[in-house]
Design brief:
Rossmann fold, Arc Repressor Mutant, subunit A, six-stranded mixed sheet, 49% helix, 13% strand, flat
Length: 370
């Protein structure tokens, strides 16, 4: 959670550095103690974590524009909300791509963003023919005891088939799963692989093993929200009242650093596909590399990964294109040439067929503020 907030804050500060300067003031302590003092701050704009109750909204000074986090835009405010459903889908695809067959999701029963991530995870796996084991706990640390939670989580994990891939609704929940696994001597990531969300580096890198996590484009979203807040503070209409925080990528660390494919031929084929993602590799090339028949390899792919060789080739190629779109300054034509495609038109047509938008539109949407 704090990694998510810090990313948004970096984007807001970056906008201030470029278009301000703004003076920031924050008050320590619980939010309930801070809200009553908002009217006395004489501020031009407010960034606040939530306004979910009317008793909180009454403290907002009239005509002062507000950015809310994790909430729908209401009352003319600007909201920043993560694409939590997409995060669940991305987590499901990533863990399934490692070769696991057993999946679980740990969530907070009383948080909308957690429910959305859970829903995306379950529905994405269901499309591929897999079911998800669920664990739901209370969000507030004031309403739950770690000793009790640890015992409950332990019994739940022990009841599940292994090897097991677990996604936590955020890094805090995922770290709790890791602690339980260590306590019970589960071998990670071979027995249990764990994935979090938000990529809070303080949590992820201090975990043992270090925690893999899903990263959002938080800085870009914070920058965009600040830009629209600036318009409102100047008495203008904002261009956007809802800022969607898109999923950026899975940051892989030790907790999932495994390709769990017991079929040696399939494992070798997948490694070859991923190593060759920037080359114009065809299905026949993959078959030749592992020295078997196409029929045999297709059958084993379907059995182990529930997909075809071509599906895996497409996924690896799209991942490579996305990486080059977001992490390099190469033009679409240059990307097409580096991947062995004849023209940017061929790449654009191929990308749109697989992703639903053109490469230009994808780069503009997710990279224009970075």
């Amino acid at each position: 959670m704090w990694g998510y907030f810090r990313g948004l804050s970096r984007g807001i500060v970056r906008y201030s550095d470029e278009h301000g300067p703004w003076s920031f003031y924050s008050s320590p302590g619980k939010r309930e103690r801070v809200y009553p003092h908002l009217k006395n701050w004489d501020c031009d704009g407010i960034v606040i974590s939530d306004l979910s109750y009317k008793r909180k909204q009454k403290h907002i000074p009239p005509h002062v524009p507000v950015i809310t986090i994790y909430e729908k835009a209401e009352g003319g405010h600007i909201s920043i909300a993560p694409d939590s459903y997409k995060a669940g889908q991305v987590g499901a695809d990533y863990l399934r791509g490692l070769g696991f067959k057993n999946f679980a999701f740990c969530s907070f029963r009383d948080r909308v963003w957690s429910k959305e991530r859970e829903k995306g995870f379950i529905e994405q796996l269901s499309k591929a023919g897999y079911k998800t084991h669920l664990y739901r706990c209370t969000y507030s640390r004031y309403q739950r005891s770690w000793a009790t939670e640890s015992d409950s989580l332990t019994q739940w994990l022990k009841s599940l088939p292994r090897p097991l891939a677990v996604m936590g609704c955020n890094d805090v929940m995922a770290r709790e799963v890791i602690e339980v696994c260590k306590k019970n001597a589960f071998h990670m990531p071979h027995d249990v692989a764990v994935l979090g969300v938000d990529d809070d580096r303080v949590i992820c890198e201090f975990s043992n093993p270090q925690l893999s996590s899903i990263l959002f484009y938080t800085e870009a979203a914070g920058y965009e929200a600040a830009r629209n807040l600036d318009l409102m503070m100047k008495g203008k209409e904002p261009e956007k009242r809802k800022i969607n925080v898109a999923v950026q990528e899975v940051v892989e660390r030790q907790s999932t650093n495994i390709l769990y494919i017991r079929d040696q031929l399939v494992a070798e084929a997948v490694h070859f596909i991923r190593r060759s993602a920037q080359k114009p590799v065809r299905v026949d090339d993959v078959v030749s590399h592992v020295a078997t028949s196409r029929r045999n390899l297709e059958r084993r792919f379907n059995k182990v990964l529930n997909c075809t060789i071509l599906d895996e080739l497409k996924r690896a190629r799209i991942d490579t294109i996305i990486h080059m779109l977001l992490k390099t300054d190469k033009s679409i034509t240059q990307i097409a040439r580096s991947l062995g495609l004849m023209s940017s038109k061929n790449l654009s047509r191929y990308f749109k067929e697989q992703v639903g938008v053109t490469p230009q539109a994808y780069r503009l949407k997710y990279c224009h503020q970075d």
